[in-house]
UniProtKB/TrEMBL annotation:
GO terms for biological process: thiamine diphosphate biosynthetic process. This is Thiazole synthase. CDD domains: ThiG (cd04728). It comes from Halomonas cupida. Catalyzes the rearrangement of 1-deoxy-D-xylulose 5-phosphate (DXP) to produce the thiazole phosphate moiety of thiamine. Sulfur is provided by the thiocarboxylate moiety of the carrier protein ThiS. In vitro, sulfur can be provided by H(2)S. It catalyses: [ThiS sulfur-carrier protein]-C-terminal-Gly-aminoethanethioate + 2-iminoacetate + 1-deoxy-D-xylulose 5-phosphate = [ThiS sulfur-carrier protein]-C-terminal Gly-Gly + 2-[(2R,5Z)-2-carboxy-4-methylthiazol-5(2H)-ylidene]ethyl phosphate + 2 H2O + H(+). GO terms for molecular function: thiazole synthase activity. Residues 12-258 form the Thiazole synthase ThiG domain. The active site is at residue 106.
Length: 265
């Protein structure tokens, strides 16, 4: 009997995860929908914007921790909304205080409001400071293989190149660069930003990515909970297809049932 496939865990710094899908918490109608979608996704890592999320600072507002329990999920505070290294570092330190010493963070330093493209110069500065300060840094960056290599050299525990612009849903616009980043990396590579539907998540995994992080693709779907389920299956299928190895591409047809050895009537 064929054995049931079991993948190795995704390892990031000292953490180990069975799911390779990481999800965000923004843009849902309310926290109830957020919780339902996250549960349906099967994700174990949940990221949130420290500057925009109530973790108990406001006793009169809904608290994210009521639907995303730190006992069930690994929280990944991120620096969304930061446009320079100084603000990003301050935000990560605030998250560490709010979460009792939690050191796994997602660093993103944006270049402008219109593209939300990463400012790689400020990202490199912030990464260097945070790693030196003891943080485990998962870093959002451009799809530039040289920048990705520099971030890994600094000590980032995961490199997260964009597939396309944040919230665009345009999919992976430059798969060749993503492949180059994967081929050189010794740390996990996860596509972050731009995924719009399940086939694009599967493609990221088929390229060899270690995981995918998404928010808008689920939250902006007509049925977010159903899309969360679709993304769960897409990431799993793409990972299995990558490990299985696709058939070679050929310029000519090749019959599934060849003539050689055919039984003639």
């Amino acid at each position: 009997m064929t054995e049931i496939f079991q993948d190795s865990p995704l390892r990031v710094a000292d953490y180990s995860f069975n799911s390779r899908l990481l999800v965000g918490t923004g843009k849902y109608r309310d926290f109830d929908e957020t919780g339902e979608a996250i549960a349906a996704s099967g994700a174990e890592v949940v990221t949130f914007a420290v500057r925009r999320t109530n973790l108990g600072q406001d006793a009169d507002a809904p608290n994210l921790l009521d639907v995303v329990s730190p006992e069930r999920f690994t929280l990944l505070p991120n620096t969304a909304g930061c446009y320079n290294a100084k603000d990003a570092v301050r935000t990560c330190r605030l998250a560490r205080e709010l979460l009792d010493g939690h050191k796994l963070v997602k660093l993103e330093v944006l270049g402008d409001d219109s593209t939300l493209y990463p400012n790689v110069v400020e990202t490199l500065k912030a990464a260097e400071t945070l790693v030196a300060d003891g943080f485990d840094v998962m870093v959002y960056t451009s799809d530039d293989p040289i920048v990705a290599r520099e971030l890994e050299a600094i000590g980032c525990c995961a490199v997260m190149p964009l597939g396309s612009l944040i919230g665009s849903g345009l999919g992976i616009q430059n798969p060749w660069n993503v492949r180059l980043i994967i081929e050189q990396a010794q740390v996990p590579v996860l596509v972050d930003a731009g995924i719009g539907t399940a086939s694009e998540a599967a493609l990221a995994m088929e390229l060899g990515c270690d995981g995918v992080l998404m928010n808008s693709a689920i939250a902006h779907a007509r049925e977010p909970v159903l899309m969360a389920q679709a993304m769960k299956h897409a990431v799993e299928a793409g990972r299995q297809a990558f490990l299985a190895g696709r058939m070679p591409r050929r310029e000519r047809a090749e019959a599934s049932s060849p003539f050689a050895g055919r039984i003639n009537a």
